[in-house]
Write a structure and sequence with these properties.
Distance between the termini of chain A: 13 Å
Number of helices of chain A: 12
Shape of chain B: globular
Shape of chain A: globular
Number of strands of chain A: 9
Structural class of chain B: alpha/beta
Structural class of chain A: alpha/beta
Strand content of chain B: 15-25%
CATH topology of the largest domain in chain B: TIM Barrel
Strand content of chain A: 5-15%
Radius of gyration of chain A: 19 Å
CATH superfamily of the largest domain in chain B: Metal-dependent hydrolases
Helix content of chain B: 25-40%
Number of domains of chain B: 2
Oligomer: heterodimer
Number of helices of chain B: 14
Strand order of the largest sheet of chain A: 7-6-5-8-9
Chain lengths: 312, 429
């Protein structure tokens, strides 16, 4: 079965079948990364562009490695080296890249909807690698992949997402994905970080971390963005840690086999204590490993690849 | 000027409580006679059977961009767009460059309009110097030159003391103060309505409260002093309720609504189409319902376009970076006929009043009626014609409309200004 869409702009528009297809394909690709020679010829001759308008190490590197392991040619453009600094519009940048016939453009941008703008004008497939506070679909897919590896299935699991939900594209994509696959999702954070009417996305909202942790199978901690500190969302990092920081003591409320996830980069001692981050509960580095497999699957499927062919 | 005999139409003149099949004789730029079976051998006959003959429509809130942004619109192109859309008069906002806060700018606008405009142009003056909200503009002098209201347009008068003084001072000249009601601290960096869809789309929201707080403050100020407050482009359920309350108290408060705010909801933003971005933003379905109710029960006085032309390249950017605003002069009448009249929210007469006698009364214009002796501004409507909105055929210099491709029922087919057919260029006969 191929993925019948040109672009991957978000999780919200995906069906359960499409999500499972990507996760199943990723499982098949994960093995490639463990080989001595970590390369398959699948996307030989394809050109991928990593177009990053925001700083990123993890996601950009992960896409680059995924592309290279599929034998694609991949190049990186970051905002500081692009024409943006000369005042070129996103549409003009996209048209110029398009004129060089890339097959996939992977975009990270601070503005929600920027990948949609690109997708509307490009023949190339567009992958959203994070747009503002909107979506970060490959992060949610790699999170789901990691949960499935640890828990067998997603249906029926109790998941808590804790932190700055308002500005988090990771939270939105995960809420869409996990609710579609039948998990029970709750979110927690200071009231200033909870977007209005979020309950309509099928989640339960908590303002106390202890209640949010009670009986959870999976706890996702979101990064507190220090650069947003001036906007009075909470009084101090110290108070934030006291109220919402994940500690081993607090974690006792969750299930004994709980897994702790974080999209990175970590602020140790702000949203998560070092003891938790480095504990056996933490699957944070597994997430990073799985990111490559999931992105290989996405690249492969968007280029018309079929699941059956990977398995065979 | 040739006499015109507008024959066989259904004449609706809400100012005179008139709705019957009558003929209209126009001579010397004035309405000469309204009656049955009129004859005049010298007059050019305009056959308007099965059409509606209404007083010329007035758009009390538009942006003609001249002086300063002639790349987006000029007084000439804006007037052509108005005529094509069925408007015979427009009131233009002062947020030009330089802003209309001095007699010379008002004079310039009136001069351009007289020379190049094919409809009547009524300038709205700045309430405060430079639209800065710091000190009052020379409202008395502006009034002498010809302004019909004062407003700081997109810059709400934040200082309550200054707003009070603007209402008091403008009140001396019987000028309404038109306020764009928005608490800018609360709307902060918002780009769309705050609600389910802003949460879904990850776009910063503008809460309804940002509008309602200022509507409430302004209404309370109007209770304190004498003065006429006019609320621009009201967009929320709470604003409608506050306005209803103010009117029940007998306060001198009026309000307008735009066609996009009674037609579209914030769900439209899901496309990330920057032509769904305006301020106030498209609101929730519940707000739209309350606005339709406010139109139905007469709480809302007028329909205005908030015509805001922007160049295509300015709008072809990321949603958050695009300027607010859409063009409206060439879609307002089809939207009002389709959404309000054909969907039976209000009668044709009520809808016509919202475009004619009501804005004329708010701005104290001697327009908006077909009484004999009045200026011969006439808008002819076809209630049943299907119109497909095509931005490429707009007379406006700008194309930023979310209604491209929409099919609507009803439009203005003929526009007469001062006894002269200005649109279409070739008359029906």
């Amino acid at each position: 079965m191929p993925l019948k869409r040109k672009d991957l702009l978000g999780i919200e528009p995906l069906s359960v079948e499409e999500i499972n297809l990507i996760l199943d394909t990723a499982k098949a690709f994960k093995e490639v990364s463990t080989r001595d020679i970590k390369k398959v010829p699948t996307l030989r001759g394809k050109t991928l562009i990593n177009l990053f308008f925001e700083p990123s190490t993890r996601t950009r590197t992960s896409f680059e490695i995924a592309g290279k392991r599929l034998s694609a040619d991949i190049l990186n453009i970051s905002a500081s080296t692009s024409s943006v600094v000369k005042g070129e519009t996103l549409i003009d940048t996209a048209r110029n890249l398009e004129a060089m016939y890339p097959d996939i453009i992977i975009i990270r941008h601070s503005r929600a909807g920027a990948p949609h703008l690109l997708a509307n004008i490009c023949r190339a497939s567009v992958i959203n690698a994070g747009d503002g506070a909107h979506e970060h679909p490959t992060q949610a897919l790699l999170d789901a992949f990691t949960i499935k590896e640890n828990k067998g299935q997603i249906k029926g699991l109790k998941v808590a997402i804790i932190g700055d939900i308002l500005h988090s594209r990771v939270a939105r994509s995960n809420i869409h994905l996990l609710t579609k696959l039948g998990a029970e999702v709750s979110i927690a954070g200071p009231a200033t970080y909870i977007p209005v009417e979020i309950e309509k996305l099928g989640v339960k909202v908590y303002h106390h971390i202890d209640a949010a942790l009670e009986g959870r199978d999976v706890v996702m901690i979101l990064r507190i963005q220090r650069e947003r500190q001036d906007k009075s969302y909470f009084p101090s990092l110290r108070e934030y840690f006291n109220l919402f920081g994940l500690t081993l003591e607090r974690l006792k409320r969750a299930k004994k086999d709980v897994i702790i996830m974080h999209p990175g980069p970590l602020n140790r001692g702000v949203e998560i204590s070092s003891e938790v981050a480095d504990s056996p509960y933490s699957v944070i580095l597994e997430q990073v490993t799985n990111g490559v497999a999931v992105r290989m699957a996405v690249l492969y499927l968007l280029m018309g690849g079929k699941y059956e062919e990977v398995v065979s | 000027m040739k006499k015109l005999l507008v024959k066989g139409g259904r004449v609706i003149d809400p100012a005179n409580n008139l709705d019957e099949h009558l003929d209209l004789l126009i001579a010397g730029g004035k309405i000469a006679q309204v009656g049955k079976q009129l004859e005049d051998k010298e007059a050019q006959i305009i056959d308007v059977q099965r059409l509606i003959v209404a007083p010329g429509f007035i758009d009390m809130h538009c942006h003609l961009r001249e002086p300063g942004r002639e790349d987006e619109e000029t007084i000439e192109s804006g007037c052509r767009a108005a005529a094509a859309g069925g408007f015979t008069s427009v009131a233009c906002m002062p947020n030009t460059d330089p802003p209309n806060d001095s007699q010379s700018v008002t004079e310039f606008i009136l001069k351009q309009a007289a020379e190049k405009g094919i409809v009547n142009v009524f300038p709205i003056g700045a309430a405060t110097k430079g639209l800065l909200g710091e000190e009052l503009a020379e409202i008395g002098e502006l009034k002498e030159t010809g302004i019909v209201a004062v407003s700081d347009d997109g810059h709400p008068i934040y200082n309550s003391n200054l707003m009070r003084k603007a209402l008091e001072y403008a009140g001396m000249f019987d000028l309404p103060v038109i306020d764009h009601c928005e608490d800018k601290e609360l709307s902060a960096h918002g780009v769309m309505n705050e609600g389910y869809y802003s949460t879904l789309l990850g776009l910063p929201g503008i809460p309804a409260a940002a509008e309602e707080i200022m509507v409430a403050r302004n209404i309370i100020l109007t209770a304190l002093i004498k003065g006429h407050l006019h609320i621009a482009h009201l967009s929320t359920k709470g604003s409608v309720e506050l306005l209803r309350w103010a009117k029940a108290q007998g306060l001198r408060v009026t309000a307008e609504v735009t066609p996009h705010h009674f037609t579209l909801t914030d769900k439209e933003v899901c496309s990330y189409d920057t032509n769904t971005k305006m301020n106030p933003p498209l609101r929730s379905a519940e707000d739209v319902k309350a606005i339709l109710q406010g139109i139905k029960d007469g709480t809302i006085d007028a329909i205005a376009t908030d015509h805001a032309p922007h160049r295509k390249d300015e709008k072809d950017v990321e949603y958050a970076d695009a300027p607010f605003g859409i063009v409206g002069l060439e879609t307002a009448v089809p939207l009002a006929l389709d959404r309000l009249v054909n969907k039976r929210v209000i009668s044709p007469s009520r809808m016509i009043a919202m475009f004619t006698v009501n804005p004329a009364t708010i701005l104290k214009l001697e327009r908006g009626t077909l009484s004999p002796g009045a200026a011969a501004d006439v808008t002819i409507l076809n209630l049943s014609e299907v119109v497909k909105i095509d931005v490429t055929s707009f007379q406006s210099k700008s194309r930023n409309s979310p209604f491209h491709g929409w099919e609507l029922i009803g439009r203005a087919v003929l526009t007469i200004v001062g006894g002269k057919v200005v649109w279409p260029a070739k008359s029906l006969t």
